[in-house]
């Protein structure tokens, strides 16, 4: 059974490189695009993400062995993150597969090579009712320290853009895709599902256990905190885990419009803000 391991998930919001990719709708995040996304701004974001991952050790006692990420563009940004920032000291490998999302934002997995060894990697295609492309679900089976097998799923389900009810079928399609793969696993398998599900209580009627927070959520929309980022685990792992959002001061700022605090974003509308993401990370610590 997995023990003494910290898992992290974070939607890092538009983690693009500054170069134009003709196969993707990434024009806003180029030097000549609407956001004037320069190499300097990209490097600031890389280092801020690295700082956040490294800061986990100070609060939870260990660096994350596994980090699930959402909204990453490609291998290049992951290579820069893991090799050209202070994160290189922890020797993270990464797993990423290109998905058909029109903007080119995918999910990915970072893993500490001396702790986790991937065995199987699969991109689970989500077939939407309207036929539009969306993010794949990343499935990775691997072992911790050569002995503890675990099945990991990284999700970023379709958003509510266009209306919550109008887009509900899209998230249901992602749920069906996830459950289809879960149904193929042994009943005693150790499973960790993480992601930005773009809704509360996203996985219904499943043997998984949801790990939630009782305070503010991970994203703030029109002055209201929401919880849409979750960890789920198999029941055999649930008694051993502690779940928490991760809220270091450098990831939040004053909310001038609605008072209180909010996540420190890279952009506020078209204005460069210098922050990292509109989401806060979440942590799952296994005893």
The helix/strand series, from N terminus to C terminus, equals EHEHEEEEEHEEEEEEEEEEE
Helix and strand content put the structural class at alpha+beta
Distance between the termini: 10 Å
CATH 2nd-level architecture: 4-Layer Sandwich
Concise synopsis of the structure shown:
With 287 residues, the chain is α+β, with helices and mostly antiparallel strands. The protein contains three helices and 18 strands. It has a single domain, classed as Endonuclease/exonuclease/phosphatase (Deoxyribonuclease I, Chain A, 4-Layer Sandwich).
Topology diagram in text:
Layout: E1 5-15, H1 39-60, E2 66-72, H2 75-83, E3 92-96, E4 106-112, E5 116-124, E6 137-144, E7 148-156, H3 164-182, E8 191-196, E9 209-211, E10 219-221, E11 224-226, E12 229-233, E13 241-245, E14 252-254, E15 261-263, E16 267-268, E17 271-272, E18 282-286
Parallel strand pairs: 1-2, 7-8
Antiparallel strand pairs: 1-18, 2-4, 3-4, 5-6, 6-7, 8-12, 9-12, 10-11, 13-18, 14-15, 16-17
């Amino acid at each position: 059974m997995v023990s003494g391991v910290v898992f992290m998930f974070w939607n890092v919001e538009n983690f693009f490189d500054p170069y134009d990719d003709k196969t993707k709708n990434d024009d806003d995040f180029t030097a000549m695009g609407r956001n004037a996304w320069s190499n300097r701004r990209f490097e600031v974001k890389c280092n801020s993400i690295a700082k956040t991952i490294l800061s986990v050790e100070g609060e939870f006692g260990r660096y994350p062995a596994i980090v699930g990420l959402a909204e990453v563009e490609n291998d290049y940004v992951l290579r820069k993150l893991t090799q050209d920032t202070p994160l290189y000291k922890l020797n993270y490998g990464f797993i990423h597969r290109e998905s058909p999302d029109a903007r080119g934002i995918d999910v990915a997995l970072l893993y500490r090579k001396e702790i986790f060894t991937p065995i199987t990697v699969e991109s689970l295609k989500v077939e939407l009712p309207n036929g539009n492309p969306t993010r794949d679900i990343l499935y990775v089976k691997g072992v911790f320290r050569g002995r503890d097998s675990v099945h990991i799923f990284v999700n970023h389900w379709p958003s509510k853009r266009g209306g919550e009810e109008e887009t509900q079928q899209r998230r249901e399609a992602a749920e069906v895709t996830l459950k289809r793969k879960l149904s193929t696993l042994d009943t005693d398998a150790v499973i960790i599902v993480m992601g930005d599900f773009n809704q509360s209580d996203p996985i219904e009627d499943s043997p998984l256990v949801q790990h939630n927070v009782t305070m503010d959520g991970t994203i703030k929309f029109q002055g209201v905190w929401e919880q849409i980022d979750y960890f789920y685990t198999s029941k055999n792992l649930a008694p051993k885990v502690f779940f928490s959002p991760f809220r270091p001061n450098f990831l939040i700022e004053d909310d001038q419009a609605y008072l209180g605090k909010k996540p420190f974003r890279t952009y506020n509308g078209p204005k460069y803000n210098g922050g990292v993401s509109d989401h806060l990370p979440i942590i799952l610590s296994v005893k």
